[in-house]
From TrEMBL:
UniProt organism field: Phrynosoma platyrhinos
Pfam families: RNB (PF00773)
Domain annotation RNB: ranges: 9-98
Source lineage: Eukaryota, Metazoa, Chordata, Craniata, Vertebrata
Protein name: RNB domain-containing protein
Length: 128
């Protein structure tokens, strides 16, 4: 008998329910506090791992912009074309680029737990 983590369909189902639960909570928070935004605080990626990966990609002829999360996402979406293996290549590189990223800080301090900011402040924080 297979356990859920060895069953791709079961794992996908669990992931979908987790995503739906997160979305439901986000909608409830938005309805309760429409003029506030919640931001999570992640430490920056591990520099050496990210630099090594960027160098590897460059050697392979893949120019990927890692200056921020948005440009990395855009690079990964645009670089692979539309052939039948494009999605697989994107998935592999996305996985590789997730490794240098660090987990959400676990320590709860007043300033770093969740920052409740006005919407204008959120947009400014995201732009920087």
């Amino acid at each position: 008998m297979e356990t859920w983590h060895r069953c791709p369909k079961g794992q996908k189902l669990v992931e979908e329910f987790m995503l739906l639960a997160n979305m439901a909570v986000a909608h409830q928070i938005y309805r309760s506090f429409p003029k506030k935004a919640l931001l999570r605080r992640h430490p920056p990626p591990q520099t050496k791992m990210l630099n090594d990966l960027m160098e590897f990609c460059s050697q392979m002829g893949l120019e990927i912009d890692c200056s921020n999360a948005g440009t990395l996402h855009k690079s990964l979406n645009e670089i692979f074309g539309t052939d039948r293996y494009a999605e697989a290549r994107k998935e592999v590189l996305t996985n590789m680029f997730s490794r240098p990223m660090q987990a959400l800080l676990g320590r709860c301090e007043k300033a770093s737990l969740l920052l409740a900011l006005d919407v204008k402040q959120k947009r400014k924080a995201i732009a920087n």
